[in-house]
Design a protein that fits this description.
By secondary structure, the chain is mainly α. Helix content is 58%, strand content 5%. It has one domain: dinb family like domain (Four Helix Bundle (Hemerythrin (Met), subunit A)), CATH 1.20.120.450.
Length: 156
């Protein structure tokens, strides 16, 4: 394992754990909330975040990308939070087990050929982008006390 991957996993968790904090602001009635026509629902967006990050990490490890996992067997935000928790634990361990050669290897995805380091950064940026959208969703459903953008290192 790359000596820095534990630190990478911790840094990523500082962002991912805020997803849990945001979802804690929701009720089961919010699972299908869409702020505009054509938007992902709140539940879909949360699941998109975790399955996409998992897809990027698996692609880095395998040297090629596949479609993200489909997780559509949920009815409530409680179900969504359970899916998020499961993916968080799995992805954390997968990040920690990435080797240096996997980070240096080039992978083709959507007509872009780039090293694993690029795709790892892209995965984290993609997650942060959608987490920002979730902040908006959660405020629009009436949450008053949203969490900070990321947790401090001692809060993970």
């Amino acid at each position: 394992m790359s000596s820095g991957m534990d630190d990478v996993a911790q840094g990523w968790l500082q962002h991912r754990m805020v997803l849990d904090d945001l979802l804690a602001q929701t009720t089961d009635d919010d699972v299908d909330y869409r702020p505009w026509d054509g938007a992902m629902s709140l539940g879909e967006l949360a699941i998109h975040i975790v399955t996409s990050t998992d897809m990027f990490i698996q692609g880095i490890k395998q040297g090629e990308f596949s479609e993200p996992a489909t997780e559509n067997h949920y009815k409530t935000m409680t179900d969504v939070r359970t899916i998020v928790e499961r993916y968080t634990e799995h992805t954390k361990e997968e990040i920690k087990s990435i080797f240096d050669f996997q980070l240096k290897g080039y992978i083709l995805f959507q007509s872009v050929r780039a090293p694993g380091t690029y795709w790892l950064s892209n995965a984290i940026d993609h997650e942060i982008h959608h987490k920002g959208q979730l902040f908006t969703y959660v405020r629009m459903i009436g949450a008053q006390n949203v969490p900070p953008f990321m947790r401090q290192p001692n809060e993970v």
